[in-house]
Description:
Distance between the termini: 41 Å
Low-confidence stretches: none
Order of helices and strands: EEEEEEEEEEE
Structural class: mainly beta
Largest sheet: 7 strands, mixed
Oligomer: single chain
Radius of gyration: 15 Å
Helix content: under 10%
Amino acid sequence: QVQLVESGGGLVQPGGSLRLSCAASGSIFSIGAMGWYRQAPGKQRELVARITSGGSTNYADSVKGRFTISRDNAKKTVYLQMNSLKPEDTADYYCLMMIRRLEYGFESTYDYWGQGTQVTVSS
C-alpha cells in the first residue's frame, strides 16, 4: 500500500507564508509527476502547481510569483512554499503523486492523493 501524509497547513495573516509538505511511503518503485491542488468551500478542486520527475514546473496564474513547488526524490516528498498569502488562497490543499509500483513483475502507475491540509488566510 501507499500512503501520502501532508503537513504544514494552518492559520496565517495576509502577506504571510506557509510551507506545505507531502511525504509518500509504502510500496513505491518510482514517482513521476507531483502536484498540489486546492479546493475552497463551494468551489471545484483546482491545480495550484505541478512538478515533473525532471523538475519542470507549472503554476496556476493566481499563484505565479508567490508559490514555489519543489521535490526531494530521496525523501519521496513534495513541498509547496507559499509566500505573500491572500485571503483568496484559503482552501483545503491536497497533494497528488503519480506513483509507479511493481506488481508481479509489471509496472503500474496510480494516482495517489494526500488527506488534505487546511490553509486559512485571515487577519
